[in-house]
Fold:
Amino acid sequence: MIERPNWVRRLQVAWDERPIVWLSGVRRVGKTTLSRMLPDARHLNCDLPSVQRSLEDPELFFDGLEPGSTVVFDEVHRLPDPSQILKIAADEYPGLKVLATGSSTLAATGKFRDALTGRKLEIHLFPVPWEECLDSFGVADLDRRLMNGGLPEALLEAKPDPGFYSEWIDSFYARDILELFNIRRREGFLALLRLLLRRSGGQVDYTSLASLTELGRLTVRAHIDAMVAAHVVRLLKPFHGGSKQEIVSRPKCYAFDTGFVAFGRGWDQIRDEDRGILWEHLVLDSLLMRFHENDVLYWQDKSRREVDFLIRRGESAVDTVECKINPDRLNPGPVEVFRRIYPKGANYVVTPLDREPYRIRRGELVFTVCSTRHLG
Structure:
């Protein structure tokens, strides 16, 4: 079995703060496999009628567990009233550690009548990050990670299988979107999803998306909100600190996985010009694993000079992050423009080369060159 010690450690640390951990992530990203790596955990598949019957009397169930036990409710939203089960566990059984898994954010899961405020921490399981490819999955070929994507089943294949991605999209709609969000116009929804895959990494233009999919503008917004809650797209806000030359309102939209971006764009092999945008997706994953989503942004001015990502720090400091397969190709110009307005913060160039960080000088600025594992 492939071990994922960093993720297991994150779960265990979370239980030091709250009795319930909500582990979310897209279908087949590895939530069930990860939960089975927890030592001595009682694992319940909430899809099974027998499990649902055993939880009809929650007190009777929890009374049968040893004090301090770990219990996993896999696909907990399949239960008739999951929030009641989790609330009883947290309030009436001190020391019990609960892991609940689901595809979407807890807030978007309609069956939850209680937000479990003060009782839970949420952890999002991302597709396999680049550093974990090297450490746990034995995949040292960047092109393979970019083309296959980071769902473990796809990553471990020798080459991408288009049937896998098509079947996944169909299952995602039927099992997540239709059931959780009750969106019944399948063709319109999937047309929008495929369009976002092709445009991944670009700015969102709701009017253009509505025109191309023949959906209403408000419907496009609602569908994208559902996709964000289900973790298949991410909206990255622009940074603006008061300059009149900055883009202030249009977010960027990134798909959740490079394999689906390559599939959506019809690529059967990777070209030199394709690697940059796909590597950008992997760097964004690593940033979102380490920082709050509200502190990860991008910057662009009205002359279209752009910084890939920004990390908002305390005391008005903002770090810049440029994503480069080859750091020698760094163009420092946009960062220099940004730094004339916002001088406080560090500058990073993130590359797939797995080596110790080092510093370079480009133009007026000093950059730290590092891999994704050194972001933090």
In short: The mean pLDDT is 94. DSSP finds 15 helices and 14 strands in the chain.
